[in-house]
Amino acid sequence: MKGIIYTRVSSGEQVKGTSLDTQEELCRNYCKDKNIEVLEVFREEGASAKTADRAEFLRAIEFCRKNKGNIEAFVVAKVDRFARNTEDHFYVRKVLLDYGVSLYSVSEPIGNNPAEKFVETVLAGSSEFDNAIRKQRCIDGMISKVNQGIAPWPSPMGYKSMRYNRRGKKKIGPDGPDKEIFPLIQRALKEYAKGIHSQTDLARMLDKWGLSEIRGKETTPQLIDQILGNYLKHYAGILVNPWTGEEVDGIHEAMITKEELYQIQMVREGKGNKFKRDKHNPLFPLRRTAVCGHCKKPLTGSSSKGNGGTYSYYHCYNKQCLMRWKSISKEKIEEDFKAYLEKITPQKKFTDLFKATVLDLWKEKGKCFETAAKKYEKQLAFLQEKRGRIFEMREDGSYSKEEFQERKEEIDNQIIAAGISLSENKIEQFDIEGALSYATKFISNLDRQWLDLPHGLRQRFQKLVFPEGIPYDRDEGFGTTRLGLIFELNRQFLAQKSSMVGDPGFEPGTSSLSVTRSDQLS
User: How far apart are CA 28 and CA 41, in angstroms?
Assistant: First the structure.
């Protein structure tokens, strides 16, 4: 049996195992096992795949047509290397069958008997769609559970799994504490937070307290790593959304406090009891963002205990500054910060104008997808018209039966390639309006966004809004500073009331938008 190999990569594809060389190697090994003599290899290089042109694909089909009767196998690594939707797949497959060529996939059981045809149909279309829907429904359900404070996955050691799935039920509540193991792990975590025990000590203590007897095996270093690593936030009553990284307070019973969580994390990093200096200490989210109004050095934070409880303050640590160690109430500075965020939050008039400007710029400078699609549409129309003329020439006798068949098959293959290029070009188009809607919604409620962000993301948010930090004076509050670009534009917009000043390249490209802007500003 003789055949050819076709390989291609998708636009921007960087997944290991799907490179052109890897695909060719897999296909050659497959052909060797199946006694298929490889006559030629057609490689769709990255540049052509990126622009959705399928020049090598067309050459491969033409090669099969011109060698009709001599080629029997068209070999690909996977079905999705052949075509990206069901209609294209089976149309091209029919054309190949007319040439006496069968499609072979290295990694999937496809063929011509009823069972193999069914598998191929599923692979070409419905399976991908069905799996995507199922996956999204599963993810949506799990996200809903996480937002309710319920872990949708099995809880770590120390909690009693209710095993809802085995009983065909949905999880509607958190897993409760394991009465034997929960207090042992809780005790071990509190001991480790003191910073005087190693992980090996922790394993020995747990076994000494009876964990090995309960489990029937010794506590391993791997288990301690899980307890102090992957499981730690769950033990502190925190659930982490694996898709967004957002942290949610769980409704399960926590073993340790959040303060103990941060202390344990610092001990593991070798920082002992210095967790108050942690760059992302959630107790002091404005550290390194708020700077001293006198010396411009970043403020730090600390807590002290008194008869009434624990009191937290921000202060300047610069030895040469007059404000060194003069405390600023944590509550006051953070309330002032929220008020300042509200003050610089862009209003609807600005966000509407911003969206219009960006959309206008996109229309002027981002027409590559639309232009490419129009090119393929014109190409398809031209080819369809050319195909019609071929039929007319057959009818009026200009072409013999053999000439007609030759020209028809050639133009049909060109139509197939152009149609696939059009389909794949449309897949790559970007929803700029959706992205703008999300962005403007985010920046229109800054104080709320800051409160809702996980502590690990707050400083990134602050850096986005205040790239150089923001000065704070105990008596006067927050001062003026350079803002992030979009917020700086908003400030200029409010100050001038007549035009929005942007960096080069940001100005709208059409006079029609200028009119829109003038209307919005009036």
Answer: 10
The CA-based diameter of the chain, rounded to the nearest angstrom, is 107
Q: Which amino acid is at 86?
A: T
Segment 470-480 shows an average pLDDT of 89
Q: 3.30.470.20, 3.40.50.1390, 3.20.20.70, 3.20.20.450: which CATH number matches 2-131?
A: 3.40.50.1390
Distance CA 124, CA 84 (A): 8
Mean pLDDT, all residues of the chain: 79
pLDDT band at 255 (very low <50, low <70, confident <90, very high): very high
Most confident of 85-94, 95-104, 200-209: 200-209
Is 364 or 216 the better-scoring residue by pLDDT? 216
Distance CA(49)–CA(421), nearest Å, equals 9
Q: Of 262-276, 382-396, 493-507, which has the strongest mean pLDDT?
A: 382-396
State how far the Cα of 459 lies from the Cα of 486, in Å rounded to an integer: 18
Of 420, 430, 408, 427, the residue nearest 376 (C-alpha): 420
pLDDT of res. 514: 41
Domain 173-277: CATH architecture, name and number where available:
Alpha-Beta Complex (3.90)
Residues 6 or more apart from 25 whose CB is under 8 A from it?
A: none
CA distance to 225, 323, 490, per residue, from 230 (Å):
8, 42, 42
Segments making up each domain of the chain, as ranges: 2-131, 173-277, 290-338, 344-352+433-521
H helix intervals, 428-496: 432-443, 446-452, 455-465, 485-496
Neighbours of 407 (CB within 10 A): 18
In the chain, the N- to C-terminal Cα span, in Å, equals 76
Tokens of 357: 């400007």
Q: Which of 337, 333, 330, 324 has the alpha carbon at shortest distance from 465?
A: 337
Closest by CA to 260, choosing from 248, 268, 252, is: 268
Report yes or no: 23 and 7 within 8 Å, Cβ to Cβ. Answer: yes
pLDDT per residue over 364-415, tens digit each? 766 677 777 788 889 989 999 999 999 999 888 888 988 898 898 899 888 8
What is the reported pLDDT for 468?
A: 87
3-state secondary structure labels for all residues of 160-227: ECCCCHHHCCCCCCCCEECCCHHHHHHHHHHHHCCCCCCHHHHHHHHHHHCHHHHHCCCCCHHHHHHH
Q: Rounded to whole angstroms, how far apart are CA atoms 490 and 443?
A: 11
